[in-house]
Amino acid sequence: MNIKGIDVSVWQGKIDWKKVKASGIVFAMIRVGYGSSQGNDCKMDTYFKANVEGALAAGVEVGIYFYSYAKSAQAAAREAAWVVEQIAPYKGRILYPIAYDLEDSKQAGLGRDVLTAMVTAFCTTIEAAGYYASFYCLSLIHISEPTRLRRIS
């Protein structure tokens, strides 16, 4: 079975979600926002609310992603807490995971142990709030002990 999905943010502009659904897309990973190096200055994607509400209204299932700039596990936990707060109005309607997106080149030099601790902190916080957690990253990001991340809880 082939399930088609898309990942969207402000960069895609205004989306006609009825056309998206009609094209065969089943789910969308929607950016809620992005973080900061200390995790205390997160910003909302300006199209987040419109994208979530448009997707749900059109019958497109929703997952969330968050673009991280964190540089420590503590900052990642703060980012996750912010995400949980932002997505609370949609609890029960987010059927796909909340993904932690590690792509910033400044994170590449943090080392495997720090990056693993960051992913663990973010995902543990997300799962404690009752959501499924996942992460994705570029190949420049190396995680130590990937088996530790198979199931966070």
Based on the model shown, name its key terms.
alpha/beta; 6-stranded mixed sheet; single chain; elongated; 153 residues; 4 helices
What does this entry show, briefly?
It contains four helices and six strands, in the order βαββαβαβαβ.
Descriptive report:
By secondary structure, this protein is α/β, with parallel strands linked by helices. Helix content is 32%, strand content 25%. It contains four helices and six strands; from the N terminus they run βαββαβαβαβ. It has helices at residues 17-22, 48-58, 73-87, 112-128, and strands spanning 4-8, 25-34, 43-44, 61-67, 94-102, 133-137. Strands 1, 2, 3, 4, 5 and 6 form a six-stranded mixed sheet that branches. α3 packs parallel to α4 (112-128). The radius of gyration is 15 Å and the shape is elongated. It starts with a strand and ends in a 16-residue tail after the last strand. The model is unreliable at 147-153 (pLDDT under 50).
